[in-house]
Every structure is written in C-alpha cells, then in structure tokens.
Amino acid sequence: MLEAADTDIARFFSLFADDCVFRLGNNEIVRGRHDIQEWVGGFLGGVTGLRHTVLEMWFEGEVTAVHADVTYTLHDGTSLTLPVVTRTRIREGQAHEYLIFMDPGPVVAASS
C-alpha cells in the first residue's frame, strides 16, 4: 500500500474498501473511500510528493503494522521526513481500517 501511495495515488485508493475507516494522527475519523480521497487530497495539496522508507513490518491475521519514515517534498523543493506507524486491517484484499500514527503538524505548518 505504501508503494502505491508513493507512486500511484489512484491505485492506493483502489485498495480501500468502500466503507473503510481512516484516521491520520489526532484528526477525526473519516469513513468511506470517497471521503477519504477528499480528505487525503486536501492534506497532500501542500506537497508535491511523498516517499516511504519501511523500517519494519508486523503481520498478525488480517492486521498489518508498518514502521516507516515518510519524506514529503514541499512545493518549494525542500523535504521533510517524519516517523510514522500505519496499522491496517485487510479483508478480501482491501483495507477496511487504515490508521496512521504520526504528527502531521510539521507538514501542515511547512506547506502553509
């Protein structure tokens, strides 16, 4: 999923179930693929790209956790790298729950 987020955002969103639950940091929960796309589009509007470097992964049944560094490229060409953990619940090949544990404040502040 993270590779798709880095290279093909449409493919990334195709991996979400229609009724997926999404949350980034302490933001409100977003429900449903369409609303998630809109929310993420607004958040990523302040950057020109992102790249994840996976540091470790953990799988247990339908749940996957990934510890990574995510590097955001800003409109001025500078970059910002933040630690992140994602926790995803996969059923029938689609994400039904996608939780991102990260402080998005530095990205928001830098892109304002």
TrEMBL record:
<dbReference type="InterPro" id="IPR032710">
    <property type="entry name" value="NTF2-like_dom_sf"/>
</dbReference>
<dbReference type="InterPro" id="IPR037401">
    <property type="entry name" value="SnoaL-like"/>
</dbReference>
<feature type="domain" description="SnoaL-like">
    <location>
        <begin position="6"/>
        <end position="95"/>
    </location>
</feature>
<protein>
    <submittedName>
        <fullName>Nuclear transport factor 2 family protein</fullName>
    </submittedName>
</protein>
<dbReference type="Pfam" id="PF12680">
    <property type="entry name" value="SnoaL_2"/>
</dbReference>
